């Protein structure tokens, strides 16, 4: 496969991260709020599986150095920065601030305020590791599909578990098994998705189904809540409870396919000067994911309460800061390299 970036994937990432920011900026938890939460996190787990490969010759250290450790370093650097920023802006006590570093290590649902979205990195890293183990040691494709379904069914079969006496599980480990389902789906069906995104005979019905379930949710005939961090999942139709697993298996995937197809045709029909800025946003989703909640909270405290305005500012500011962080990191790396010897 060519190393050239696939434009529609970057655009889909940009759409996904804007949906995440908009969902966090919204104060009214109506139909649109629920709709965004159906797919804006699953889409990143699906795309996370697109380019995964089995580990060759058990080179797990190479995998950790390339895929896990850089994210882990960014997690603690950005987390520490935001903890200190929160201390001074929110006027928190030093005892609260220092204990927050313990919470950063524990992760998951213990993280709130500026770091409330950091659970995603915990779950993403765990899902990357679990998925890589499965595709490395479970060679049969059908067996991999079975593992994905078992993971989803078991992880959604209960509402809450305790870790010893603690209320929350470290790093939201149980949520990672839901993310595993989506990441394995992305890994197993990436080549099929590349064909589907241009097939209007599939995408148009998916788009119509998306519009229909959105309308049914708005009319209170359909009720689907899917909040991964808190593991709050409920599903009913005409107020009759329905299997949560069946909703999770189909609704996020159908909507993600529509987003992928929209991104594909956007890149096909739009000029490059329109595509490139959006593609750049898609390439900085991690930085935007880390920083946007702090910016939204600061805007709230400054008196801004419009979700659209907050979304625009949060995306732009966190994008600029993310670019700056990437530049500084590249400079540090280049300064550590020894000059080539003759």
Automatic annotation (TrEMBL):
Protein name, UniProt field: Acyltransferase 3 domain-containing protein
Record key words, sorted: Membrane, Transmembrane, Transmembrane helix
Keyword ATP-binding: no
Natural source organism: Lentilactobacillus diolivorans
Record-annotated membrane-spanning stretches: 7-25, 37-56, 68-89, 117-138, 145-162, 168-190, 197-215, 245-266, 278-296, 308-328
Statement: the UniProt record of this protein carries the keyword Nucleotide-binding: no
Top-level taxonomic group: Bacteria
Alphabetical list of PANTHER family matching this protein: MEMBRANE-BOUND ACYLTRANSFERASE YKRP-RELATED
Domain Acyltransferase stretches: 7-324
């Amino acid at each position: 496969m060519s190393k050239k970036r696939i434009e529609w994937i970057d655009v889909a990432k940009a759409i996904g991260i804007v949906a995440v920011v908009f969902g966090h900026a919204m104060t009214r938890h109506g139909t649109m709020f629920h709709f965004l939460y159906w797919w804006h996190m699953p889409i990143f787990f699906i795309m996370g599986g697109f380019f995964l490969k089995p580990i060759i010759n058990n080179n797990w250290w190479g995998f950790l150095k390339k895929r896990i450790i850089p994210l882990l370093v960014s997690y603690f650097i950005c987390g520490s920065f935001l903890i200190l920023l929160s201390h001074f802006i929110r006027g928190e006590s030093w005892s609260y601030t220092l204990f927050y570093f313990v919470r950063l290590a524990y992760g998951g649902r213990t993280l709130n305020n500026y770091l409330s979205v950091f659970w995603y990195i915990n779950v993403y890293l765990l899902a990357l590791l679990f998925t890589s183990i499965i595709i490395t040691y479970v060679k049969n494709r059908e067996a991999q599909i079975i593992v994905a379904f078992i993971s989803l069914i078991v992880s959604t079969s209960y509402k809450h578990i305790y870790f010893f006496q603690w209320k929350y599980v470290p790093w939201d480990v149980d949520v990672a098994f839901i993310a595993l389902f989506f990441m394995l789906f992305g890994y197993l069906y990436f080549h099929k998705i590349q064909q589907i995104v241009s097939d209007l005979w599939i995408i148009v019905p998916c788009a119509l189904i998306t519009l229909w379930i959105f309308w049914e949710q708005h009319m209170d005939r359909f009720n689907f809540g899917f909040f991964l961090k808190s593991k709050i999942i409920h599903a009913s139709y005409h107020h009759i409870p329905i299997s949560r697993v069946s909703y999770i298996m189909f609704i996020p995937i159908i909507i993600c396919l529509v987003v992928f197809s929209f991104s594909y045709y956007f890149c096909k029909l739009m000029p490059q000067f329109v595509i490139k800025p959006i593609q750049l946003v898609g390439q900085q989703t991690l930085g935007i994911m880390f920083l946007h909640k702090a910016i939204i909270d600061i805007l709230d405290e400054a008196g801004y309460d419009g979700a659209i305005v907050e979304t625009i500012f949060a995306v732009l500011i966190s994008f600029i800061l993310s670019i700056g962080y990437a530049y500084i990191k590249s400079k540090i790396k280049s300064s550590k390299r020894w000059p080539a010897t003759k």
